[in-house]
UniProtKB/TrEMBL annotation:
Protein name: Class I SAM-dependent methyltransferase
Gene Ontology MF: a single term: methyltransferase activity
PANTHER family xref list: METHYLTRANSFERASE
Methyltransferase domain sequence ranges: 60-153
Species for this entry: Streptomyces violaceochromogenes
Amino acid sequence: MFSPEGPSLRELAVQALSSVERGYDLLAPKFDHTPFRTPDAVLDAVGSLLRRTGPYDAGLDLCCGTGAGAGVLAQVCRERVIGVDFSAGMLDVARKQAGPTGPPVSWVRADARALPFAPSFDLVVSFGAFGHFLPGELPWLFAQVRSVLRPGGAFAFPLVAPPRPGSPGYWTLLGFDTVMRVRNALWRPPFVMYYRAFRLGDVRRELTEAGFRVELHALPEFGRRPDGSPRVRLVMARLPEPPRSPR
């Protein structure tokens, strides 16, 4: 799972016994060499679809980590890109890796549940961060995203289909979530990271209640499951367009 440049077992153990913020500060220098970093294939597929749904002016990468999603935004946004994360260590790596081309990119340390921005973005993206939010936090999180989007703006993120019950992937995720729940019951501070808690049905409902119109786009690069459903979707949640002034 990890490349030779990735963290050692000892480093992972120390990170897992830390808070989420401190754990990612420690992991940041080696994060891009772990399976937790969104694969380039997913980033490329999302970027390809977003280029067809634009154009966009200003973009926000929510929970940006080391900046992979900001790189996608730099390809589809014309004016500016901001990456926001609460880990200072991840932001330090993102600053060092930022590409020299495209619109200006800046990095802001903040909690996604208390975004310090006006409604000035046309597009918000997020990659692989939702396991760090408990289901009860989604309404507030989605309300925060809505608060920084201009009318007609979009919130986009990829969502992988859950593994079938009884499959090796199913038992792997169930085992991981169980270990994390036991860890959090016995150790403080908690480390919230639950891969099975972010379900499409719940997400659609909460986005709709937050005022978004939800669209689902299959990412054909990843094929379909035996039942015909996409293996990976892009969830595109849009705000209503501003009313047109009468002529």
